[in-house]
Amino acid sequence: MAELRAPGVCPEGPPGAFEVTAVGLRTRSWDADEQLLADLGRYIRHMRNQSEWPEELARSFESAHACLEKLAHVDAKDVLALQETWTEADTDVLRRLDPYADGFVEGELDTEAFRQRLPSAGQFADIVQERAFAMVGASDSLLEKRPGPEIDAHEVVVRFNDHVKDNLDEAVTGTKTTMHVTCDASGPMGDDGVTEFDLETRAPWSSYCNKMNINGVFYHPNITYYIMRPTALCAMDSEFSFFTRGFMFYWLVGRLFDQPDMYGFDGDAHYDNNQVVWESFLHFEHAVYRLVRGELEIPADVEPLDAT
Fold first, then answer.
1. Which has the closest alpha carbon to 250: 208, 285, 277?
2. Which of 70, 108, 190, 301 counts the most CB atoms within 10 A of its CB?
3. Which element (helix H / strand E) includes 31?
4. Residue 112, C-beta contacts closer than 8 angstroms, at least 6 positions apart
5. What is stated as this protein's family in its record (predicted)?
6. What residues have CB less than 8 Å from 225, skipping those under 6 apart?
């Protein structure tokens, strides 16, 4: 499995800057991003002052906060592979993954030929609108709350990886799915009415080989993926892989909607198999969700994290 920083895939040297494109799509408020990050920093400082906060957890929060700061002014349009954002440099990365013909396109790999396989900015704009929006995680809290009918009442319902189809329960999770977000090891639903995303950051080249290569195990000629551009992935350092795909979707895409209703994002074990989520930034992610919902209290006299 090819990790994000796999040698020979990205250009040599340290991660670069994200390329900000000129595509006219909805963006988040930079002021809101900066305020949220400032509040998170104050929360971390406040919790560090609590003697019962474990040092390992504090370091994890600080690392996650520093990593998220790099995405403060990065929008979906800056990282997604769209017809309008794909570049020759992105094609060069694909050539490093598979230099042979009949790989990412029929015949020799060509930038314009691959670009035609991608969704357009207009298609992305159509799906990111002001609509009732539910993000459905897989935590065991769903078993207690059983919000299935409430979830299915939303116009847009986003689910993740293999928590779809027969793995759903009408009362616990609901069954409606309109968007599906996956990692490198999860395939598409194969439903024309479902928009497919892949926001893998730990092994993104496996996602490209499995889904975008015509010989890939999850390839389907009639499925269009919203996936991150190779050059955007090469601008990420390895710590981005510590975020879950759910959080990456929330930060880059979900926040382009009106405030999403979130279900199953407040525990560290799955509702269906009790499997623990391993990503080390998970507790930080939950703090972000709670802060946005107004559930975290931070004393007014707590200084910013970077204050001396």
1. 285
2. 70
3. helix 30-48
4. none
5. Belongs to the glycosyltransferase 29 family.
6. 119, 188, 196, 197, 198, 211, 212
Q: What 3-state DSSP class applies to 300?
A: coil
Separation in Å, CA 4 to CA 201, 225, 268? 6, 19, 24
Neighbours of 37 (CB within 10 A): 19
For the stretch 57-111, pLDDT in tens is 899 999 999 999 999 888 899 999 999 999 999 999 999 999 999 999 999 999 9
DSSP string, 9-26: TSPSSS------------
Q: What is the pLDDT of residues 185-196, one digit of tens each?
A: 999 998 989 999
Q: Give the integer Cα–Cα distance in Å for 98 and 211.
A: 13
- Within the chain, residue ranges assigned H as helices are 30-48, 55-69, 76-79, 88-97, 111-115, 121-127, 141-145, 148-152, 204-207, 230-234, 245-252, 282-292
Q: What is the dihedral angle through the alpha carbons of 280, 296, 304, 235, rounded to the nearest 10 degrees?
A: 40
* Cα→Cα distances 76→20, 24, 81, 91, 176, Å: 10, 11, 9, 19, 24
Sheet with 156-160, edge to edge strand ranges: 225-227, 195-198, 179-182, 156-160, 133-136, 261-263
* Number of neighbours of residue 155 by Cβ within 10 angstroms: 11
Closest CA to 213 of 79, 87, 93, 106: 106
C-alpha span between 120 and 226 (Å, rounded): 10
The radius of gyration of the chain from alpha carbons, rounded to an integer in Å, stands at: 20
Query: What backbone phi and psi angles, to 5 degrees, belong to 121?
Result: -60, -35
Q: How far is CA 235 from the centre of its chain?
A: 15
Answer for the pair 186, 200: CB distance below 8 angstroms, yes or no. Answer: no
- Name residue, tokens 């406040």: 46
Q: Name the residue with tokens 């700061």.
A: 69
Nearest to 133 by CA among 150, 158, 109: 158
Cβ pair 196, 188 in contact under 8 A: yes
| Tokens coding 97 | 């993954």
Six-digit token string for 117: 């396989």
Is residue 116 scored above 90 in pLDDT? yes
